[in-house]
Write a structure and sequence with these properties.
heterodimer; A: 112 residues; mainly beta; 4-stranded antiparallel beta sheet; 0% helix; B: 115 residues; 11 strands; globular
């Protein structure tokens, strides 16, 4: 899977929007962009995924750059429960691989 | 909402002992996975399982590890002779269909401590 780069940590105030960036300059045309998060002492949790177009779901929005070399996970209104490590993961639909390859992710702190 | 469950939540064992970690995937899911996370480190893939066979495994998943789906609901990870370095959080996950586009749903994990 292609490599992703994320900031080690970010802070946000409660009830403010949060933009979590991810760079993936070597992304291929068949790579899906997935975001998972891991709350403290819990298993990873799916957040959102996309291929080319921006995506919205009840948890977040995913904005994908036109050249697909970067993406941004947007939490519209951070809550204390959103404090977690957020992972940006590329998954190649052509590789036939089943695994999720986690990096170090971005640790998001939410300030009350 | 359906969820993946894992038992036990914590397990302490002596080095060299066998342990079996248990998981109940979401009922209509067909693909099953084990991951581990050593304290303070990344989540690492161990193995995936589909149609009663291992479909992919990592270098970590050596001969000391095995997986089994003994019945229609459980999915187990066995470590035959535990080592100190096997101490980690072990997560089970499952997905419904074709893995790349599909979401993997993770359980809460089993914390394994090898003494």
């Amino acid at each position: 899977d292609a490599k992703t780069t994320q900031p080690n940590s970010m802070e946000s105030n409660e009830e403010e929007p949060v933009h979590l960036p991810c760079n993936h300059s070597t992304i291929s045309g068949t790579d899906y962009i997935h975001w998972y998060r891991q709350l403290p002492s819990q298993g990873p949790e799916y957040v959102i995924h996309g291929l080319t177009s921006n995506v919205n779901n009840r948890m977040a929005s995913l904005a994908i750059a036109e050249d697909r070399k970067s993406s941004t996970l947007i939490l519209h209104r951070a809550t204390l429960r959103d404090a977690a490590v957020y992972y940006c993961i590329l998954r190649d639909s052509g590789a036939g691989s089943y695994q999720l390859t986690f990096g170090k992710g971005t640790k998001l702190s939410v300030i009350p | 909402e359906p969820e993946v469950t894992q038992t036990p939540s914590h397990q302490v064992t002596q080095m060299g002992q066998e342990v079996i970690l248990r998981c109940v995937p979401i009922s209509n899911h067909l693909y099953f996975y084990w991951y581990r996370q050593i304290l303070g480190q990344k989540v690492e893939f161990l193995v995936s399982f589909y149609n009663n066979e291992i479909s992919e495994k990592s270098e970590i998943f050596d001969d000391q590890f095995s997986v089994e789906r003994p019945d229609g609901s459980n999915f187990t990870l066995k470590i035959r002779s535990t080592k100190l370095e096997d101490s980690a959080m072990y997560f089970c996950a499952s997905s419904e269909l074709a893995p790349v586009k599909e979401t993997q749903y993770f359980g809460p994990g089993t914390r394994l401590l090898v003494l």
